[in-house]
Design a protein that fits this description.
This protein has about 300 residues and is of the alpha/beta class. Helices cover about 40% and strands about 15% of the residues. The chain contains six helices and twelve strands. It has an eight-stranded mixed sheet with strand order 6-3-2-1-7-10-11-12. Strand 8 and strand 9 form a beta hairpin. The longest helix is centred in the first third of the chain and has 49 residues.
């Protein structure tokens, strides 16, 4: 099509002036005029070919651009699109072909975690959501038989379960038959990359673990029958997106009997397009500020 510009413009100019139509029959008999008419018809055919080609190119470009915008919206939806431990944010996957989820059908969990943590930190009503989740948690604990519960020290804007658990502990002392209830916080075993739970109570002495997270200092090890786990993200089926260290999965694999596991998170962390990996272990329940998310 290079070089067809002059013919195109001339043909268009003639067309606008009404000099000829597509199949014009020029009422001429002189050879010179017939030759000029033939030449003009050739220019018109060339101009029409150029116009058709340009329209095809335009349609193709529009289709590609539309597909790109649709793909971008899909990536944005999925990308707007979470401890196992602090700072271990490597490694979600939505099995969708998009950069936010890794491309080539591999999720970019690190990017998803960063996005979800940033959203959580910037929730304008995070305190109100936390208050609602405290209530959900306390109601959920009613009539539970457990007397030893494991939890976590909140980081990166996570929901803090400790106030509700302290109330649960105090409530046990007010029963007709008082119960000694205990709360445990995780301590990392750096060699085996697993967690043990040490007794915690308000005011107990704390120290930082290898990841800078506070843990009880020199308190006894306790074995929880119920474990509250923080969620960066969560999905149907009880699946949880953590920080990528695998501490909880490894710990649960070694505990016999396995404790009841309950994920805690805010509503923004729900992932509607999440495919668990073979090593992911489903939680028994998930709670958020709206209530019980799992089981449905």
């Amino acid at each position: 099509l290079v070089g067809a510009g002059p013919a195109l413009q001339k043909g268009l100019d003639l067309g606008r002036l009404g000099v000829f139509q597509a199949h014009a029959q020029f009422p001429v008999r002189r050879p010179g005029l017939e030759c000029m008419a033939a030449h003009l018809r050739q220019q018109l055919r060339q101009a029409r070919a150029v116009l058709l080609a340009e329209r095809l190119v335009h349609v193709e470009q529009h289709f590609v651009a539309s597909a790109g915008r649709a793909g971008h919206r899909h990536r944005h939806r999925l990308g707007a699109a979470r401890h196992d431990e602090k700072g271990q944010g490597n490694g979600q996957g939505c099995q969708n072909l998009c950069p936010m989820h890794g491309g080539n059908y591999v999720m970019d969990k690190a990017a998803l975690r960063r996005a979800l943590v940033e959203q959580r930190l910037n929730l304008p009503d995070r305190l109100e959501r936390a208050d609602l989740l405290q209530r959900v948690m306390r109601i959920w604990l009613v009539d539970r038989p457990d007397t030893v519960i494991g939890a976590y020290w909140p980081i990166k804007g996570e929901f803090d379960p400790l106030p509700a658990l302290h109330r649960w502990k105090e409530d046990g002392e007010l029963l007709d038959q008082p119960q000694l209830r205990r709360i445990g916080l995780p301590v990392v075993n750096k060699q085996h990359k697993t967690l043990t739970f040490h007794a915690w109570y308000p005011g107990c002495e704390m120290e930082e673990d290898a990841y800078g997270i506070p843990k009880p200092k020199d308190t006894e090890v306790i074995v929880p029958t119920l474990l509250f786990v923080p969620c960066v993200g969560y999905a149907a089926g009880g699946y949880r997106l953590g920080y990528g260290g695998g501490f909880y999965d490894r710990t649960l694999a070694t505990l016999q009997p396995r404790p009841t596991t309950v994920g805690l998170g805010f509503t923004h962390g729900f992932l509607d397009d999440f495919t668990p990996e073979p090593h992911d272990m489903a939680l028994d329940a998930i709670l958020n500020d709206n209530g019980v998310v799992w089981p449905v």
